[in-house]
Design brief:
Number of helices: 12
Structural class: alpha+beta
Shape: elongated
Distance between the termini: 27 Å
């Protein structure tokens, strides 16, 4: 086997430019697959972290009738905070949020909005809740960038908000925009205004009630509570998994095309090599090599293209991949209105599993493609091969 590797390496180097062209194409496959897969892994990681920091924390309890995609349920989606969570809420490990439907009237227009009551002292999210403690004679509030753009509001603006209280009576007040935050989570920004929780409870007459209970620790066991539905972190981020899975299928077509081009080059090289080196094959058999050993020699020779390609890919690929991990890849179009959790600049994440699986994929595929034309050797007549007779 050691001799086979030596002979294969010597033959490859002896082939000169033909070998290095194949190696370069294969190295492109290595770097491209790792880079694209790294982008998807980075997107997955980034989207889930942004959702954790701006919306879902470590998981949530939803009041049983709450459905964020059905505004008609919001009026009745509230319930008293369960007594068993009071201690965790006092410790800051869980935050109640009250959600009430309403309208705002910026520049004489009427916009539907969800008013979210949130604790100004919370530490679960990276929201600017400290701005809710700013002194003002109106209701302090902050909004996301998406709401600010659609309502044309800025910090310091005052706008009228209208809602219905627990008895169904319409009421209205002035709110001051104290801060605007920007995140990569559209569902935390679009169509929402955040106000102090206790202030909203007094405004609506929904004392000690909440719509969502968000907890920090996603690993802790969570009991089932009557009138509340447990939404684990995994469930709340499932849409990201589904989206990444769908993108992965599309990217697989790209990988297949790239590998097909590289494998076509290797296959042609093997066919040409076997055709041109028939005397050499006959000599190997005359020296005592079995046909299987000669087939193995040519298969190893073809598969070694992927080994050389891995080294060449490391030479220029490692600096490129490291640079991309540092500066990221900026999407060529505005993604703020995609309606999904995605950053404008994606930072690829490369894992050991990603590198190992890509290397194995390219190496095994190259070995298989190298073996297919080598099977012809088993059918050769060694005498005719030594005479140089074409077979």
């Amino acid at each position: 086997m050691k001799l086979a590797f030596k002979l294969a390496f010597r033959n490859l180097i002896g082939a000169g430019l033909r070998t290095w062209l194949n190696v370069f194409i294969l190295s492109l496959a290595f770097v491209s697959i790792i880079w694209v897969k790294g982008i998807l892994v980075g997107w997955d990681h980034q989207a889930k972290m942004d959702m954790t920091h701006y919306e879902i924390g470590g998981g949530q309890y939803w009041q049983e009738t709450y459905d964020p995609y059905d505004p008609l349920t919001l009026d009745i989606s509230h319930a008293p905070v369960p007594a068993e969570f009071e201690e965790e809420i006092q410790a800051g490990g869980m935050e109640p949020v009250l959600v009430v439907p309403g309208h705002i009237f910026p520049q004489g227009r009427m916009l539907s909005i969800m008013i979210k009551g949130i604790n100004p002292g919370q530490t679960i999210w990276k929201l600017p809740t400290d701005s809710l403690e700013s002194p003002t004679d109106a209701v302090p509030a902050f909004i996301g960038m998406a709401t600010a753009e659609s309502a044309r509001l800025d910090v310091g603006d005052r706008v009228t908000v209208r809602w219905r209280d627990a008895q169904g009576t319409f009421d209205a007040a002035e709110i001051d925009i104290m801060a605007i935050f920007s995140s990569n989570v559209p569902s935390a920004e679009a169509g929402q205004i955040y106000v102090p929780l206790e202030r909203l409870r007094r405004m609506t007459g929904l004392e000690k009630r909440a719509t969502i209970l968000t907890f920090r620790d996603r690993e802790a066991p969570r009991p089932e509570i009557p009138s509340w539905t447990l939404k684990t972190w995994t469930e709340l981020t499932r849409q990201v998994d589904d989206m990444i899975r769908a993108k992965s299928v599309g990217q697989s077509i790209f990988y297949a095309m790239l590998l097909l081009l590289a494998m076509l080059a290797v296959f042609d090289t093997q066919v040409f090599s076997i055709f041109r080196r028939q005397k050499e094959i006959g000599t190997y058999i005359a020296l005592g090599y079995t046909r299987g050993e000669v087939v193995g020699l040519f298969t190893v020779e073809g598969a070694m293209h992927s080994v050389l390609a891995a080294f060449v890919a490391a030479l220029y690929g490692l600096p490129f991949l490291a640079w991309q991990a540092k500066v990221g890849w900026t999407m060529p179009m505005d993604v703020s209105e995609f309606g999904m959790s995605i950053a404008q600049t994606l930072y690829p994440v490369y894992t050991a599993g990603l590198v190992v699986s890509t290397t194995l994929l390219v190496t095994v595929t190259t070995a298989v493609v190298s073996y297919l034309p080598s099977r012809k050797i088993a059918k050769m007549n060694p005498t005719d091969a030594l005479r140089g007779k074409l077979q």
